[in-house]
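Standup notes, structure subgroup. Blocker cleared on the heme-A input:
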Amino acid sequence: MSAESSYYVPAQSRWPIIASIGLFMTAVGAANIINAGSANESTGMSWLVFLTGAFMMAYMLFGWFGHVISESREGLYSAQMDRSFRWGMSWFIFSEVMFFAAFFGALFYVRVLSVPWLGGEGANASTGELLWPGFEATWPLMANPNPELYPGPKALIDPWHLPLLNTVLLVASSVTVTFAHHALKEGKRNALKMWLIATIVLGCVFLFFQGEEYVEAYNDLDLTLESGIYGTTFFLLTGFHGAHVTLGTLMLIIMYFRIRKGHFDKDNHFAFEATSWYWHFVDVVWLGLFFMVYIL
Amino acid sequence: MSAVLDNPIHDEHEHHGPPKGIARWLFTTNHKDIGSMYLWFSFAMFLIGGCMALTIRAELFQPGLQLVEPEFFNQMTTMHGLIMVFGAVMPAFVGLANWLIPMMVGAPDMALPRMNNWSFWILPFAFGLLLSTLFMEGGGPNFGWTFYAPLSTTYAPDTVTYFIFGVHMMGISSIMGAINVVATILNMRAPGMTLMKMPLFVWTWLITAFLLIAVMPVLAGVVTMMLMDVHFGTSFFDAAGGGDPVLFQHVFWFFGHPEVYIMILPAFGVVSQIIPTFSRKPLFGYHSMVYAVASIAILSFIVWAHHMFTVGMPLFGELFFMYATMLIAVPTGVKVFNWVTTMFRGSLTFEAPMLFSIAFVILFTIGGFSGLMLAIAPSDFQYHDTYFVVAHFHYVLVPGAIFGIFAAVYYWLPKWCGNMYSETLAKWHFWMSFVGMNLAFFPMHFLGLAGMPRRIPDYALQFADFNSISSVGAFTFGATQLLFLYLVIQAIRSGKPATDQVWEGAEGLEWTIPSPAPYHTFSTPPEIK
Amino acid sequence: MRSRLGLGALSLLLSAFYAADVSAEYGVNMTRGVTDISHSVYDLHMTIFWICVAIGVVVFGVMFYSIFKHRKSKGAVASNFHDNTTVEILWTIVPAIILIVMAIPATTVLIDMYDTSDADVDIKITGYQWKWRYEYLGQDVNFFSSLSTPKDEIYNAAQKNENYLLEVDNALVVPINKKIRFLVTANDVIHSWWVPDFAVKRDAIPGFINESWTRINEPGIYRGQCTELCGKDHGFMPVVVRAVEQAEYDDWIIQKQEQAKAAAALAALTFTLEEQMQRGEEVYLKTCAACHQPNGAGIPPAFPALKGSDIALNDIQKHIEVVVDGIAGSAMQAYGDQLSDVDIAAVVTYERNAWGNDTGENISAADVVDYRNK
Ligand code: HEA
Ligand code: HEA
Ligand code: CUA
Ligand SMILES: [Cu+2]
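Run returned:
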């Protein structure tokens, strides 16, 4: 807790305002595109706005992080600064945990409470009888209360094929990233690179299989976003997870290039550690998904 | 420009002033600048949200439809709630945190100064987006600040998409702001400043920041579910596909209830700083204050469904949420008793910060009492969605959050700008606010009990008298805030110079530095005994 | 000195609240209502209220004592105490005990409210934007109930009557001294069915049925409102219940059943265009004008104009379809089970001939039946 004599307070920076404008344009562009899509209208200039915003965000990320990296390499940061980054990253991951918690909570709620209620359980006998006669509450829900509006899926993903394989892949990647970390701490740069590449490859293969799975779901199983609450929770949970794997993989790739440039040493490699924390977090979420969404 | 900006070398020890012009504000990394921007932004939002409230009050002055159509009235109600909550109160507290936390813990700045700037600058864009929906085809959000599905999904105007992205942006801003606060408090304290020596304002903010990081992502989650239901055919909130509209409410209130404590805990902190100063006596029960705030925060995660007593939960759920909610009265009571005991056998004076703090304690407690009444599930069947609820939450929010903020501004303004405000004008501001506010919100208790539902543009004749009184009070309270604006500007421009200590009984690191506080403080950490 | 003023203002306000239960008729306090449950709720409310007042008097009493006695201007010197474990434990435990005392009656009342078993009459209540539908289960009685206050009163063009905004065309009629079970649900968004005199408030959730019950002790007319924001006319969606003796109730049921038969018989008759226009206008003003406006201009873009609208001028089948089946995912409901075939035929005819939509076409109930049978 003791403050080292000088905490680095950066000079003025243009990145935050670029980031704000970029975020704003991305959001406005995306909203316009989505609205136009729903109304079957042409998107007009919206893609331009969206892409400009996204480009600004990308530019900002490279610029801002680049700036931080050069400051760090110039030795401006103290151990205290390092701790600030650690707290920052930990709490960021906690916020991500809570984001997933919302969707897991929704899943539990529909499975344990509201779907059975629709089928007439608890104090809801009349809900089942008067509103949804003929509906049977099961989980996974194959026939929705109103099958005309929401035709249910024909079949579900078999957890013991691709998802099991994916579980193995992702757990393995958590192991390889830990090996990479150890190699870094022991100064074995080649082993570090090798394990890191292995992790990246595992991540990419995972994503590829997940893509396969989605294609199968849409083309063969009629399991879609529109197929009722099972498809809804299935795609939202696995989809957001997939998005996080993608982000994690990108972070790992960036780490790889930084390592090739000779960044990081035994004691000073927080960016790498943060990435591996993130990777472990993504892995843990997957384990939750594998059990809650696929198996049970 | 970039030549200057890209230069990462920065001499800490030279106490140079801020750069000039707009660039100072756009690019700043200084916690004081950012704090000021947050405070001004929040005040602007308070005026905008207040004007919406006045539109509501003007329409409700008499029965019948006079000024606005129901469609627009609903937009006003919704936007008023959203703007006050997310635009006025939350940014004001973040502004105070920015100004005060580094000074109180003896840090040179916030832990992550650049991210700090980003947290702020997202806000004007987010609220720009939100406000612009009022001028779009179909009008702004009209489904209440609680935006219950399916009114906010299947039946919403198209602009709901902008609303959703606006909420996402506010969420990003709040989460980053909160992470910064936590990192600053946990990592930037001067040597000797142990956790249990921290000023209570810092403690309350630490816990508030934790709440923010825990629940803002849940809000992001629920608006994302809405987005999917509106545009991508999912059925989270549609029973036809196996979902449940009530699921929305559970997820929303899991965020929403902690959110209301986010809007009060920092005010608790402020009052806990001010009352000891003007009682010239140490805060009574420092430790129990800390534990009380922590208990309130923890309990706040398991009471959310007290907003949903009438949705038809099973009896067991109903009872659980009733008991849990009632429990919150215990730690809150501890705080109230501690404040009162701090005043007991003190040597009291009544400058503006103290007046606002005393009013805070009294009126917040009244709001707390009505909260406790609402927590009694069977009675809530009569209160729910009536003006009794509106009365409850304005009592905890206006003399609670808003008076807390006023108290803080009066208390620390001399430290910020180096000048005293005019005590006479401040007393006027207090008394006019006090009277106006009670006139506006007290009759709402009666209206609610007599059966007036909330969120209606027109009402039955028996509600006419109290509504007129309430409107008069609202306009009085509103107009008084212009006085506040005037007196703050007057103090900054031409107030009498303040001493470093400012208040006779004040204690804490921020009073050891000059007034106005130099642009950079505590570049070398102070020693704490 | 100024604080004394504050105290004055405050005690004034508080005493207004104390006066609450004395002057209940002036509308400052919760109604006691007309059911055993509503009485229990009222008593609970008052108990909690007085406990809060008592705590308030003690807490604010100590506070004002300090404000008067311990002010610096009176030469008070600050003491320096800042901890006292005994009192701190005491003021944690005492409130906890008070809360337990409150929780006990609250729990009993709640358990009572939740007991919907053994009802004598079952009524299904469905919320629509912006009206209620009442179905007497097993009785073949089924009707809509919507606001009957004229627009002129709302827009201040006419004197407001005593029951302004709390009056409907068809009140719910129920027998007294019988256990009546309400099955509450909604057709579009969430509404909430509230009658203060019964202490019954239940959210109407689309897709789910919530149960609630009442047993009314006294005959009378009881008024309430929708209490969940449900869109534009949320404020114009009252509930009116007429509680009558059993015999009167039985008569009313029979009368309702006969009306239904008579309405069905109408479908066999044919009407002239004028007759159709007249009936159609009535239906239109009552049912459709809230959104599409009396002059057919709508409130674009939320509610489209029917004047000059493509559908109203051209494809008849499509027009009937829109009215009977509604437009999925929009505020345009399916009116097929809300209006009789005769009324649908009339309103479609009206829309195709009013406001300059001069198609001259006369749609008959048979056309609607044909569409339905398709
Ligand atoms: C700052 C914001 C804030 C705060 C602090 C609170 C505090 C409390 N609130 Fe409030 N509340 C809101 C903001 C807030 N609320 C808002 C915005 C809404 C409406 C949302 C919407 O629908 O739009 C709402 C709605 C709301 C409801 C839902 C009502 C309904 O819709 O039907 C309920 C129900 O239980 C409730 C309860 C409480 C309770 C028990 C407390 C407690 O924390 C109060 C505790 C304090 C005290 C009790 C006083 C001091 C204690 C003592 C002196 C000790 C001794 C006392 C006893 C033993 C009784 N609140
Ligand atoms: C912190 C939050 C906060 C604050 C500070 C306020 C402040 C005020 N609110 Fe509040 N309000 C909410 C949060 C807040 N509100 C929420 C969450 C809701 C629920 C929304 C929903 O149902 O979805 C609500 C709902 C709500 C309603 C119910 C609406 C309905 O149900 O339809 C009403 C009605 O009177 C009201 C009134 C007021 C008034 C008069 C003020 C006043 O205190 C405002 C005073 C400020 C000003 C007036 C601005 C300053 C002055 C000027 C700009 C100068 C111009 C003025 C003059 C010349 C007179 N509010
Ligand atoms: Cu129906 Cu409000
Ligand atoms: Cu709450």
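Discussed briefly. Strands of chain C lie at 121-128, 131-136, 141-145, 172-175, 180-186, 191-195, 200-204, 210-214, 220-225, 238-244.
Next: hand off to the docking folks.
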